[in-house]
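Lab manual, section 2.4: Encoding a predicted structure.

Procedure: take the sequence of the chain (108 residues), apply the prediction step described in section 2.3, and record the output as structure tokens. A sample record is shown.
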Amino acid sequence: MSVSKVFLYAEYQVSIPFSQIDWKSTNVEMKKFPGLKSKTWLSALNTNTVGGFYEFDSVENAQNYIDGILIPFAKQVNGNLTVKLFDGDITKEASTGMSSPFYPAESK
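Recorded output:
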């Protein structure tokens, strides 16, 4: 499958207040993965589940990230992990008109 814009949603079913997440060093480690374009950290209201919304340049690089960071962290915190991959190419036209930061409006 050749997709040039892949979105990954990940969530750990553990209760960790975001203030206890060492996001600075985690960000450094995440930036080492090829193809990672961006991450938006997520912290659930009321439940303190943590996760993120990511953009990758390929399905392969997204899968390498899942295998290299997400799964090992789930084991470390003894939590369940939910991961979903989304095709960002197919949704470009629909998202551009909705002011999505992932699809800047094309200048005319």
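Check your result against the sample. The mean pLDDT is 91.
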